[in-house]
Write a structure and sequence with these properties.
CATH superfamily of the largest domain: Formyl transferase, C-terminal domain
Structural class: alpha+beta
Strand content: 25-35%
Order of helices and strands: EEHHEEEEEEH
CATH architecture of the largest domain: Roll
Oligomer: single chain
Distance between the termini: 29 Å
CATH class of the largest domain: Alpha Beta
Helix content: 10-25%
Largest sheet: 6 strands, antiparallel
CATH topology of the largest domain: Methionyl-tRNA Fmet Formyltransferase, Chain A, domain 2
Number of helices: 3
Shape: elongated
C-alpha cells in the first residue's frame, strides 16, 4: 500500500560525484498513505534542518559510512506525457502517481475535453470500467478505484473535490481520459 514505503534524509560528505559521498547521519520517514509530494517535501525539509544542526554539533564523533554502489539510479526529468493518468493501471499505481506528482508537474486527465490536474487522491472501494466516474469523483481503474480529492482546471485555483463539483459537476458515468 501507499503507506508502506519510506524515504529519508542523509547528511553526507562532499565528493566529486552527485550524492556519492560517505553518509554521516541519516533518518528515515514513512510516507503517509494519502501524503502528496509537497507534504513529504515539507516534512523532509524540516527533518533535514534538524539533522544538519545535529551533525554540526556531533561532527567530531560521526563516522563516515560509504554508500552502496548497487541499486543507485538516476531520476530523469518527468515528461508531461508520463503525468497523464492511464486509468487502465491498478488503482494503487494511479493513486501513487497522482500524489507523487502533486503539485508539480501534476498528474492530469481530460474531463469533457478539458485538461484537469489531479492533485490529491485516495484508494476507494468501487468497481467499473477504467476511466469511468462512479460517484462523487471516484474513478474506476484497471483494478479498483481512486477517489479524487483535489483538482485544478486550467487557469483556475486548485479546489477540493466538493468545491470542484459545485463549480463544474462531473456526473457518474462520465468517461475521463479523452479516449
Amino acid at each position: 500500500m501507499a503507506g508502506d514505503r519510506d524515504t529519508g534524509v542523509c547528511i553526507m560528505q562532499m565528493e566529486a560525484g552527485l550524492d556519492t559521498g560517505p553518509v554521516l547521519l541519516r533518518e528515515a520517514l514513512a510516507i503517509g498513505a494519502e501524503e502528496t509530494a509537497a507534504e513529504l517535501h515539507d516534512r523532509l525539509s524540516a527533518l533535514g534542518a534538524q539533522l544538519i544542526v545535529e551533525a554540526l554539533a556531533r561532527l567530531d564523533d560521526l563516522v563516515p559510512e560509504a554508500q552502496p554502489g548497487a541499486g543507485v539510479t538516476y531520476a530523469a526529468k518527468i515528461d508531461k506525457a508520463e503525468a497523464r493518468v492511464d486509468w487502465t493501471r491498478p488503482a494503487v499505481e494511479v493513486d501513487r502517481l497522482i500524489r507523487a506528482l502533486s503539485p508539480f508537474p501534476g498528474a492530469w486527465t481530460e474531463i469533457a475535453g478539458e485538461r484537469v490536474k489531479l492533485l490529491g487522491s485516495r484508494l476507494a472501494e468501487a468497481k467499473g470500467t477504467p476511466g469511468e466516474v462512479l460517484d462523487n469523483l471516484a474513478v474506476a481503474c484497471g483494478e479498483g478505484a481512486v477517489q479524487l480529492t483535489r483538482l485544478q482546471r486550467a487557469g483556475k485555483a486548485a479546489q477540493d473535490a466538493e468545491a470542484f463539483q459545485r463549480g463544474w459537476p462531473v456526473p457518474a458515468g462520465t468517461r475521463l481520459g479523452g479516449e
